[in-house]
Amino acid sequence: MKPTLFVLAAGMGSRYGGLKQLDGLGPNGETIMDYSIFDAIRGGFGKVVFVIRKDFEQDFREKILSKYEHLIPVELVFQSLDKLPEGFKCPEGRVKPWGTNHAVLMGKDVINEPFAVINADDFYGRDSFAVLAKRLMEMEGTENNYCMVGYRVGNTLSESGSVARGVCETNEEGYLTTVVERTSIERIDGVVQFKDENDKMVSIPDNTPVSMNMWGFTPDYFKHSEEYFVNFLKENASNLKAEFFIPLLVNDLITRKVATVKVLDTTSKWFGVTYAADRQMVVDKIQALVDAGEYPSKLF
């Protein structure tokens, strides 16, 4: 059974403006997502599921899906604020989506095999998809043994401002022990630093593994997500900014010894357009990969 690629594409990219998922950055107008789909197909994935906002559907079908439909089976699911467990309703004034793990929950009716989760607007690189597909194929028929691709934090920064990353700690066997979402990581005076919950700057080594939201799960993860989301809503429903992030649940499962998460190393360097000022750098990096023969100049 080939694994499925689940692409989180419901965000608008507030800091960058516009639908950055549709921004053509490759030599023939390819989007970052096009490179992910290309790498996923050659890495061994068998289906792609996109989670998007319903009002984006027409645009998405015309500009995105039409490119891949003849190459790999694709499906759409929709994230909306009112898709909540029974007994809950969206609080008045809430405009922020419920977060990445809520987006993941939208796939529960269409995904029945091991699956990867990625962001639509991150460039993950060829090696990471190959490494992840191989591991997912080995996970077939198991439960509660998950994985993630760990990038070295120094390879994931923006020169234009701070970034949010899931900072990871691992044990000697390479399994995740904690992952904490840190929202303002940047290089200051040559050292990678983040601001902790007490507004203190904490420095970390360049090779510290971070999560770029590239996860590998088996379908039982949906059941854990539903259970946790109910508890999350009980505590946070009235907080208009609270988000149900993937690391929140992963941490909980690890802490309670319900699941393990193997951190997969990759030679890939991550890059993305966090800020408008990053755009040209991404265009240049993609062009360099094309020039080096990593990708054809026209993908599809």
Summarize the structure.
The protein is of the alpha/beta class and 300 residues long. The protein has seven helices and 13 strands. The protein starts with a strand and ends in a 9-residue tail after the last helix.
Q: What is the general shape? A: globular
Count of runs of 4 or more consecutive helical residues: 7
What is the count of structural domains?
1
Task: Please name the CATH architecture.
Answer: Alpha-Beta Complex
Radius of gyration: 18 Å
Q: Structural class of the secondary structure composition?
A: alpha/beta
Question: Termini distance?
Answer: 25 Å
What is the helix fraction of residues, given as a range?
Answer: 25-40%
The count of strands amounts to: 13
Profile the largest sheet.
Answer: 11 strands, mixed
Which CATH first-tier class would you pick?
A: Alpha Beta
Low-confidence stretches are: 12-18
Strand content: 25-35%
CATH fold-type name: Spore Coat Polysaccharide Biosynthesis Protein SpsA, Chain A
